[in-house]
Specification:
RNA_pol_sigma_r3/r4-like; transcription regulation; sigma factor; mainly alpha; DNA binding; 20 helices
Length: 411
């Protein structure tokens, strides 16, 4: 029923976080929460939706957890533990457990866990996605994903990973780890990998945005959290214009800007302005959000302020001198200083980015603009070989085929 679906979307993370705090065990929290929602499916149609669904689910889940512990304790003759846990103290209402959800997020994103485990555990424990949903999203077998989540929970238990918000000195590094997980989820939805999947997965981008909004509500003063949310919103706003009717990826400069989501653009711009007004040196997510704000401020691609985009990339390079950032900067330089200058910058990155499809796609476009047909075709071929997104591969193939027969004299 719709009320249970809505409650699951809104309350799952709260319920699991509350139970994790009380019982200190992710398995117990997850299973008791699932049983509580199953009870809601059975009872709410007949009894009616309770006035406070979150409190009802939390209370029910607590009782389910206690019943399970009593059964296991009785089987293992641990009566004292069961007696200690079995009480009728009402759980804290959902409004009072916001910190519990924050603790849960930091636990799921602990650096002791591998990146894939952090992503899967966060989507399951905080987001409430089912194991089949997560497995489908990341193109792995359901059994493999279930094992990954189980191993992550076991490691948390055996390594005694604390269920807490990091101390002040730890917090900046740990927040960046949380944001990296959320951005990975978003990117997999925004530009999905794998030949047998949809090129764009709105469910994953929406879930990443929802979880980032949650972190933003819990850490409202953190500039990078706001920056990541703004970045996601400004990218998501363009989603309706990113894939053509024939299934090709549509580059930013060719998109129908009238199809962009004006509400998401406005919200993203507001967050960017708020961070600028704060007068605090921005981090990488805030700079990336500002770059996207420049792009989405232009009514036509010809109105884009490329000098501002390059200046922002210059600022980003100082913080994150990675080859991927340098590659993206070169794309902007091409619009400001011409393709020849940009190609020289791109070619310097070959050793670091030879296995990255976007490097070869960028070279192909620059060589195309310089009239170097044969070299452009070879670069397109390499980009298509490496690309994992079906819509992107289709776009690159069409661009390559538009070159026609290369003139023998062309390099």
């Amino acid at each position: 029923m719709e009320a249970v679906t809505r409650a699951h979307h809104e309350e799952w993370g709260r319920v699991v976080a509350s139970l994790t705090r009380r019982f200190g065990d992710l398995d117990i929290a997850e299973e008791a929460a699932a049983e509580a929602f199953a009870t809601a499916v059975a009872r709410w149609p007949a009894d009616g939706v309770p006035p406070n669904p979150g409190a009802w689910l939390t209370t029910t889940a607590n009782r389910k957890a206690i019943d399970r512990i009593r059964r296991e304790s009785r089987r293992d003759d641990k009566h004292e533990e069961a007696r200690t846990l079995y009480d009728d103290t009402p759980p804290e209402p959902p409004a009072a457990i916001e910190d519990d959800r924050l603790r849960l997020i930091f636990t799921c994103c602990h650096p002791a866990l591998g990146t894939e485990a952090r992503v899967a555990l966060t989507l399951r424990m905080v987001g409430g996605l089912t194991v089949p949903e997560i497995a489908s999203a990341f193109l792995v077998r359901e059994t493999a994903m279930g094992q990954r989540i189980t191993r992550a929970k076991t490691k948390i238990r055996t390594a005694r990973i604390p269920y807490r918000v990091p101390d002040a000195e730890e917090l900046p590094a740990r927040v960046s780890g949380v944001l990296a997980v959320l951005f990975l989820v978003f990117n997999e939805g925004y530009l999905a990998t794998g030949p047998d999947t949809d090129p764009v997965r709105p469910g994953l981008t929406a879930e990443a945005i929802r979880l980032t909004r949650l972190v933003r509500a819990l850490l409202p003063e953190d500039g990078e959290v706001a920056g990541l949310l703004a970045l996601m919103l400004l990218i998501e706003a363009r989603n309706g214009a990113r894939v053509s009717a024939t299934g090709e990826l549509v580059p930013l400069d060719q998109q129908d800007r009238g199809a962009w989501d004006a509400g998401l653009v406005a919200e993203g711009h507001r967050l960017v302005r708020e961070r600028l007004a704060a007068g605090v040196a921005p981090g990488p997510y805030q700079i990336l959000a500002a770059i996207n704000a420049v792009h989405t401020s232009a009514r036509d691609v010809r109105d884009t302020d490329w000098s501002q985009v390059v200046a922002l990339y210059d600022q980003l390079v100082r913080i994150d001198p990675s080859p991927v950032v340098a590659l993206n900067r070169a794309v902007a330089v091409a619009e400001l200083d011409g393709p020849e200058v940009a190609l020289a910058a791109v070619d310097r990155l070959e050793e670091q980015l030879d296995g990255y499809h976007a490097f070869h796609a960028t070279r192909a476009e620059l060589l195309r603009r310089l009239g170097l047909g044969q070299r452009s075709r070879a670069a397109y071929d390499r980009a298509i070989e490496l690309a994992g997104n079906t819509a992107e591969s289709a776009h690159l193939a069409r661009r390559r085929d538009q070159l026609g027969s290369a003139t023998p004299g062309r390099r």
